[in-house]
Amino acid sequence: MFHAPELTVTGPSSNNQSKNGLIGALVVLVAAVCIAILLWVLGHSQRDPYINATLDLEGSLEQGGRLFRINCAGCHGITAQGNLGPNLLDVSERRNDAQLIRQVVSGNTPPMPRFQLEPQEMADLLAYLNSLK
What we know:
Elements: H1 12-45, H2 49-55, H3 61-71, H4 73-76, H5 91-94, H6 97-106, H7 119-131
Helix pairs in contact: 2-7, 3-7
């Protein structure tokens, strides 16, 4: 007995379905990329001018250490091990630079006082904080 092979015919509707699936996937991909770009732009455009000015500068580790000993060591310890204030060793692994700057200048976490440093001084202190291991 002879059996004829079955043929599957793909017509225009099958081809249109695969094109529609591809177009839908591309639309989703483009939308996701647009949302990511929008979030990035919003996050960077709303950054505080003081933070931007500080992050644009190169800090001096030596000057930052001096500022730390004068202003911070009383609470955080001479080696940043923590006393009244928390341990700051490896603080750059727990906070990014913008968060560290906000913490220093805001005074939002009593008993830490609000510090008014010039951007270069803050860049110096930030260099020192980032060196603490």
